[in-house]
Amino acid sequence: MLTLSFASLSPVFSQGGTIKGIVTNDENGQPVPYANVYVMYGDNLIGNVCDFEGNFTIKPVPPGTYTLYVKYTGYQDVQITDVVVSSDRITFVDNAKMTAGIFIDPKVIITAEKIIDKDMPELKIITKDQLDDIPGHGNINNLIAVTTSDVQVSDDNNEIYFRGSRSGDALYIIDGARMLNPESMCPSVAIGRVQVYTGGVPAKYGDFTGGVIVIETQSYFEWLAAKESERLRNGGF
Questions:
Q1: Fewer Cβ neighbours under 10 Å: the N or C end of the chain?
Q2: Mind listing the domains of the chain with CATH numbers?
Q3: In this predicted model, what pLDDT tens digit does every residue of 134-173 receive, in sequence order?
Q4: Which of 27, 13, 154 is nearest to 88 (CA)?
């Protein structure tokens, strides 16, 4: 049986997210126990081994877009692209299906992210790919306003209002630091993803009558992992 050695993780990863899923046999739907499942973050391999029921949990994973690799002796390797991970969230991969037999080329499965947020219906998550497709995303307030009807922006684009809240009731957090003026510290091109709480703000952010905008900038390794997912999605070119 193939065995992978997983690197120890730096404390900087402690604020990452989680990837959960189940690995099954593509032909009969039965779980594939003890398969190796991992993602790459730069030179670091972050992963785990499935349990007897084929279930796996990988954490902590730095925020970003990844390719999930699944390997097991006697089965074709699986690569699942575009697995999006956000801080303090769970991304569930529901189509990690392996085919028995050894082939020259690995099987590539394309999947969209599925983030478990049934307990937080007032949370909006905007990924890097979505940001690039939003017109006028050069201004952070405008960017947030076009993603949800719960947000309004002043005529000069300098103020943002959540559900009629007063001026100044919006909290911006960039990579864990509170900011009054996000434009001066974080140009839009540096944004990796945005989480917008329009209500039900978690206690760790304090008591706010407005909303909270959590901005995570994009690291080089995140950019590299996203490019690898894009390459595999395009057939390896």
A1: C
A2: 11-116 (2.60.40.1120), 123-220 (2.170.130.10)
A3: 765 567 777 777 777 777 777 776 777 777 666 667 788 8
A4: 13
